[in-house]
Amino acid sequence: GTLVWFDGEQGYLLPGFVIGSSGNSVKVQHENSMRTYIGKILLSVNPYKQLDSYTPELVEKYADQAIGRLPPHIFAIGSAAYAEIQKGGAHQVIVISGESGAGKTESTKQLVQYLATANPTKGSLTTEQIVEATPLLESFGNAKTVKNDNSSRFGKYLEIFFDSEGSICGARISEYLLERSRIVGQVRKERNYHIFYEMLAGLPQEKKQQLQLKSAEEHHYLNKGHGLIQKRCDLAAFSKVISAMEILEISESERDGIFTTLAAVLHLGDAGFYKGLASAHDVAVLRDEHEAEITAHLLGLDAQHLIKALMHKQTEARGEQIFSPRNTEQAIDARDAIAKELYSRVFTWLVNRVNGMVFHGKQRSSIAILDIFGFEDFRINSFEQLCINYANESLQFFFNQFIFKMEQDEYTIEGIPWHEVKYTDNQACLDLMAKPPHGILHLLSDESNFPKATDLSFLEKCHQYHKASKAYVKPKMHVPEFAVSHFAGTVTYKVHGFLDKNRDGLKQDLTDLLCKTNSEVMMEIGSLKMPRENRKNSLKAPPNSIQKSTVCAKFNDSLIRLVVAMKRCNPFFVRCIRPNPDKAPDEFVEKLVLDQIRYCGILETVKIRKTGFPIRIVYPNFVKR
After folding, report:
1. pTM above 0.90, yes or no
2. Can you count the helices (H) and strands (E) in the chain?
3. Which of 95, 226, 273, 507 matches a 20 to 30 Å C-alpha distance to 104?
């Protein structure tokens, strides 16, 4: 099991998990088991290797088994959630959380596999389509980062619906905050989204020639990070993508349109710019007009219209269209904005297409699985990390409310003698991040709506309003950064690019350009038509939510909707643990593991489970027993 000694704690035994005192020392030992339970919480250590413990035989073994009757396993969580549905519990949610690289994506796939195998759809492809949607979106939404070879760069809330007989009858996927900046640039030892490399490895040679594709090293958007994944075969992954598309009934012409659009993104990135010498001012000159012409051809656009849009800003004054030359940086920004918009539209189209196949209306019961990006702290942290870590703060608050506050409030209401368990409350950090009117995200949205605002003016407002906050750290030196004391540790954020990333919309002239396509597939993908039933039943905005145009405002609203939806469900938790920083199998770094156990509230959870009343039975069920 996993053996943990923690200074000052009394010994407490759980399957495979012991907490006890050992003088003044803290020690963690890892033996054979990678998992343990604390009530309805599964603690799972990433093995960083393939295990043969996810077979159909094991699915059958764990079906209809209560937690604790068999060794700890992700299948047991799926079985327990399904059992609650069978007992009349309408909606369940399984919240999977942990640092980047802790194994959340694999846990999600295993849960989907279990539910699909144990409770298949009767007489239709729906179950198979739900299973295939996961690796398909993984190829388009996951990438290699420094900490994780298969990091989710978007959040996913998968609802699986069940009919009155307990069989799967549909599903719906909600996606959150695709990391758009990765499309146009990556840091060292990282990659762009998997699908680009898979496409280059798997497309027939004739098709690659038709799209004029080169090797990954020759495309500007793919050769920034020089990241290699030793154990990943892009060719085999591409075969799985095509198979998934076929099962999801994405037609050959639609597939062709997707890969044509991705090729256009790569060629657009190869259309570089340099500073022209003919003017005293910085006026951008297109380095390779041929790449722009290829891009225009693939997108069904007029080449000269595309080149003009890249090189000139279009504004309107007194009813007249005015064109002014862009400088080099502005031209690169315009190019990158189009590339990010194209890829994002493909991704959103895919999600909507999947939902159009597997979502047949809400049912009386469901099991939702939340797989959202893990807490991140890199050498350089930017806008994306701020949003990701805010999402993790919200999930930690949800966990705290359910495990600690609601539990202890219930004891007080029922007059049960009780010694209060202290836990780390992250309300102050959430207020710092999102409380109106001066939370960091609100300040960022406000500044993003001022044309003359800068990253530094945003930073000054953060310093002004939050210098007294315990969760905010103003740098001692005059540097363009700030730090936030998160539940998982203090993270320093560099503000360069914050406003641009938060605005991250396509200017009207560039939007108008894409609307001029004569490609039928581009019209379909570019229009982002959402199936009527998907539009009607998508998570509703909270009544006090304000729809704004900035990225962080939209993300905050979607996060509020997500938490509201989760509060209507009976939750289970899977806490994924990263055992070492090197992604190495069979290596267990004690301090790293203990830090994760501490900050995610596991120690306090053990304490409240030990001293509290974790088993509750309603009177009718008690009488039946």
Report:
1. no
2. 24, 20
3. 226
